[in-house]
Design a protein that fits this description.
320 residues, 17 helices, mainly alpha
Length: 320
């Protein structure tokens, strides 16, 4: 009943404005960075195909600028002349472009293509932590949990205060059944940064696994406070409320989750169970129908939970 609420690492760059001739403008470091920054804007607006196109052009431009065999060899060193302090040579910039393009491909569910881009970023900059973090997400999406865990270990080894990596590793460990390890990682993530809803959300589910419902509710409350539009936080809090027998309050959270994300199948799943437990069979069936329309694969789980909810209703026990 939990999504993979992962954190990622995009890279933002900028250069000071410098006058260049019209002839050279299309092949300067600034041109590459303009493409890079245009891609960032397109990512924010949801134009993923446009972002991939701009990042591909940025990669080609920066790679050309770094080519010592170029007929316009003077541009090979111009990146240093125009760059900000964070950018020293062509290759580091190109690695960042590969990293961001990989993330866009991940968003498009092209996990294999994303991994190829992260691999290339790490070939150029093997000491860069962000591609390890991001590649781990793609590996995880492909079911390669052990490989994903190794990448997160590497990211943390490179960057000791990388709270995103601790948060994602905690989430992964929870999926792998290591609840104790998950809690340790999520605690560390929150020690470093306690302003991120995703980490509280993940720890809330870890507490549910431990049947620490008070701890879960506290974490989901914090997640909702930090991000009032996070549908999955309401879904998580509703789940904890449902498991403590507070069905009416649980239904309110599931309803809010659905308002924020009408495609959240698990919220229909759980609201239906809450309604069924309270004896509202007709509305419960409507929720179950919508859940299965969105996620037909949930039918075996739903059937077993429906039987359990009816049995627990008769025994006046909470749904767990």
């Amino acid at each position: 009943m939990r999504r993979c609420a992962l954190l990622f690492a995009f890279v933002s760059l900028c250069l000071p404005v410098t006058a260049v001739s019209a002839f050279a403008q299309s092949r300067t470091p600034e041109a590459a960075l303009n493409r890079f920054n245009d891609a960032s804007k397109k990512i924010d607006s949801g134009d993923l195909d446009g972002a991939i196109e701009d990042l591909t052009r940025a990669i080609r431009l920066s790679s050309h600028l770094g080519d010592s065999n170029s007929s316009d060899r003077g541009l090979a060193n111009s990146f240093n002349d125009y760059s900000s302090e964070e950018i020293k040579v062509i290759d580091p910039f190109t690695a960042n472009a590969y990293n961001n393009r990989g993330l866009v491909r991940y968003k498009k569910n092209d996990f294999a293509g994303a991994i190829e881009d992260f691999d290339e970023a790490l070939r150029i900059r093997p000491g860069l932590a962000s591609p390890y973090l991001n590649r781990a997400a793609a590996l995880r999406a492909m079911g390669k949990h052990e490989a994903a865990l190794k990448d997160l270990d590497k990211a943390i080894a490179i960057k000791k205060d990388f709270f995103e990596a601790y948060s994602n590793r905690g989430s992964l460990r929870l999926d792998m059944g290591d609840t104790k390890g998950a809690i340790a990682d999520l605690n560390r993530a929150l020690e470093i940064n306690d302003k991120t809803a995703e980490s509280f959300y993940q720890r809330g589910y870890a507490y549910i696994e431990m049947k620490n419902y008070d701890g879960a509710l506290a974490d989901f409350n914090r997640a909702v406070y930090l991000d009032p539009n996070m549908a999955w936080a309401y879904q998580g809090r509703g789940t904890a409320l449902m498991m403590t027998g507070k069905m009416t309050k649980a239904m309110e959270d599931f309803t809010r989750a659905i308002e924020l994300d009408p495609h959240l199948a698990w919220a229909y799943f759980n609201r239906g169970l809450s309604r069924l437990y309270l004896g509202n069979e007709r509305d419960a069936q409507k929720d179950f129908d919508e859940c299965l329309r969105l996620r037909p694969d949930l039918k075996p789980q739903l059937d077993s939970r429906i039987d359990l909810a009816r049995e627990l209703r008769q025994q006046n026990k909470p749904v767990q």
